[in-house]
Amino acid sequence: MRISFDIPLFQYDSRGNKLERYEVRDHGDYPNSLLLLIGPDEVADQVRLSAGKALKEVRLGPKSRKRWTHAFFFSRGVPQEIVTLCGHLTEWLSIPCSSNIDITLSLDWYKQPDDSGDLAVTTAGKMIAWTKYAPYPNGSSSRRARRDLIDALGQAINAHPVLAAAAVISTPPGSKGDGSSFGEVLSREVAASVGKRFISTSGPAREPQKEEGAHDVRLDFQFSEIVSGAVLLVDDVFHTGSTLESTAVAARRAGAPEVLALTAARTIRR
Description:
This protein has about 270 residues and is an alpha/beta fold. The chain has eight helices and 14 strands.
């Protein structure tokens, strides 16, 4: 008796996922018009939002579903910016979104298992460690890491069609409630580096967020002004996502039709 095992094509992680593979193929008489993906719905949603009406969903047959998770047809060929985006999405971490946030991305995990199974700090994690937690923040290594961190976040914004189109940048208010937190200062610098206006968000002083802390959404965050376009929230680390969610609620109340989120790293704990 032969026993067969069905191995899922894509192993979904509720904390976040990267695009595993993509391929551009000819489709009938249309050259380079079919984009095939192996990845989560969060990645496919970003392709949809980036391409707009230029793409058409392709229904995968039984055989194709064993090889791919999503397929998109572009009658004029897959645009280069979409191909470039897919390349980045194999490196960036796409995080499941709430109803208040349309896209949530991190440059990478903060730590990842290495070949021996031990947790090793990623490049994104090192940039944060050498800046936010540096014992000598004014040292040359810390200053260089800070520049690298700002550049990496800025490059991600400019490379992503949806993030690049955001009207303004904001960030969750720090726990001190005085606008001086690492994430607030960082996001202002990132906004300046990409030439976008920064809007501050205020909130009362509170206990610092812990990785295992509560996920309750706060309703006491406030935007400093009314907004009319998409808001991009930039922060250093994604822990539970509760402060990003609370800030997204404040952005929606301030008039934002879309809210996007980009962090440098995502912690590996749930």
